[in-house]
């Protein structure tokens, strides 16, 4: 409860000097520009991806896969809105999804705007676009 109240205060701007991000999809995930056009990016501006093998709002990327394609994690009290949702992964952790598709980053992208994972694994990995 206290954690939720503190987060609400941070998001409301009461403590903006120490706030780095709020726990809402529109602040964790946003639209940025890459060579692929409008692309979903994380709070650091890194490109996000979807995986074709994910189905029914469930991640198929676990273990070594998730080490290379880190899931965009969500806190248990995050409040999704619009096309954003939060799914539960096999390990019980929470992950952001857009349009029902879980979102991931790619360890080989080194700077904002990189899209080196697009088309990986015979096209199974794609840049997430709004």
UniProtKB/TrEMBL annotation:
A matching Pfam family: Lipoprotein_15
InterPro entries per record: Lipoprotein_repeat, UCP029720
GO process terms (BP): alkane catabolic process
Signal sequence coordinates: 1-25
Record's keyword terms, sorted: Signal
Protein's recorded name: Lipoprotein
Organism name: Methylocella silvestris (strain DSM 15510 / CIP 108128 / LMG 27833 / NCIMB 13906 / BL2)
Lineage: Bacteria, Pseudomonadati, Pseudomonadota, Alphaproteobacteria, Hyphomicrobiales
């Amino acid at each position: 409860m206290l954690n939720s109240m503190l987060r609400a205060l941070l998001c409301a701007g009461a403590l903006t000097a120490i706030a780095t991000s709020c726990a809402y999809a529109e602040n964790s995930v946003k639209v940025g520009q890459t060579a692929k056009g409008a692309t979903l990016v994380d709070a650091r501006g890194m490109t996000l991806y979807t995986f074709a093998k994910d189905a029914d709002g469930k991640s198929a990327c676990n273990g070594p896969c998730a080490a290379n394609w880190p899931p965009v994690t969500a806190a248990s009290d995050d409040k999704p809105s619009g096309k954003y949702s939060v799914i539960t992964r096999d390990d019980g952790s929470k992950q952001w999804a857009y349009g029902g598709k879980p979102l991931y980053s790619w360890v080989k992208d080194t700077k904002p705007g990189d899209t080196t994972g697009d088309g990986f694994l015979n096209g199974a990995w794609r840049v997430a676009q709004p």
